[in-house]
## 1
Amino acid sequence: MPSPTITGATTMAELQRALPGARRSLFARYHIGGCQSCGFEDDETLAAVCERNEAPPVAEVLAYLQESAAHDRSIQIDPAELKTKLDAGADLKLLDLRSREEFDAVKIADSQLLTTELQQQAFGTWESDTQVVIIDHSGDRALDAAAFFIGHSLPETRALTGGIDAYARDADHSLRRYRIELD
């Protein structure tokens, strides 16, 4: 899948929709977007944000964001591929990051709610070739968790693209979809 076209005129909201890991990448490399002093508004352009944050060249930032997005895509699994693997009986560990209430309301069969204890067990006893899929609601938090698991000697970890919402929409229509409403 080709990367979306992003320019210095792209708003930060558009950037984050196109590249869900953009905020993480910007903070990791440029200290942009991770705290109050370097935060940004959704309607600001990438060029404006760069300008007021020590002015890294927009072309350099764009190249880095595209590189980071390619890496993010390499650690994702799309809903249809996951469904195919599950239907074929693949030996996968499905770890769900959502709240207990969300998990109890709707879940993929054989998935487990990720608790601190389960995470410690995974890092301490699972073989390095264990295939792990991280699930959240919309796919954004799962990327961070998958990178964390990969960094803790579980390199076969993937994040479910679009989360359980995309899985219910695109791969398993028996699962109910829901929205998260924040106050």
## 2
Amino acid sequence: MDTIAFSPQDGSVVQTESISSESAMSAVLEVFPGAQRALFRRYHIGGCASCGFQPTETLAQICARNGNLDVAEVLSHIQTSHEQDAKIFISAIELAELRKQDATVRLLDVRSREEFEAVNIVGSQLMSQDVMRQIMGDGSNTRPLVIVDHHGKTALDAAAYFMGHGLQNVRVLSGGINAWAQEVEPAMRRYKVGS
């Protein structure tokens, strides 16, 4: 089965190698980097030790040991994961407006403690085990939760985790705190993360 993937850099359509039920997860993840998030979000596969998979396992093997899931349906879901990721993003301007309209919006910062202490969005919380338990245990799976990182790339994994655990209104700040500093709070200090 030939598939189509979207370039993560510019969103353009590119033809990819053939992915099938017999493809190893390492190959699936190479073609569809968001596949693990997509699997966890819909099927609760691959997000923790009890539901994880090995890179050498085939898609068919993973489907078989997770309730004999329909491989074609799972593959279709993986192929459209880029669309689901795109829907999760919220721009800095949209977030600023949302915060004005809804005082219940939670901001969860997934950067390091050092980055958070150096600069953060007022009212945001640094992710910790205690904060995660509080969010999961507050009894509201529809309260808006916006995940913040540095550039809006790594926050997708945290969003998938919360969505996989039933939260329905999870977003990711597109461009991260860097975009917030450029578009909403120009006086906010900006920084680069060393490589």
## 3
Amino acid sequence: MDNISRRIISYAVSHSFIRKEQYEEYVYILTMLLNVFITDITLFLIGVLMNMPWECVAFWLVYMVLHKYCGGFHFSTSLKCYLSSCIMCPVVLLFIRFVPLGPIWLLAITLISAIILLIVSPVEAQNKPLDGKEKVVFGRIARILTIITVILYGVMLFAKLFAVAKIISAAIVCVMIFAVAGKLYLKHLQK
């Protein structure tokens, strides 16, 4: 993605669409956008291939919103992040389809995961440290989003939309796993 971005931005600079001083900034932004776009398209295709496109989209939206503010483990390269997403998504979709958890078990797992997120968020990463102000702001947003997500989960459960509740629960659990993994990884690095 970096090479593709550099070629596109070089073309833009050579045709005076972008100033030369902004080259690196635009390469970074375009690389990030391409990575997100390719990941989203790939995951949607995985959902389509598994005959679960809307489940995949719903999971990914909830997961991405929570993960952005709760933080957690981040892979060192975009490729590793992409591959982990391509592994996590079908595993979650298989869980949603085949693991027969009753509402009580699902509620317990969701609440435990949400409580852990409320306690540990935001989790900075080695390559994404947070300053004091960011910790406060991201922490507040992470807690609000976690509570809203749990309320949304409860509404789906109450409305007997168990499939949707299971998707939301899976997203909360996955974000919690990455948050705890990120916290443990940082502690390991500090030793």
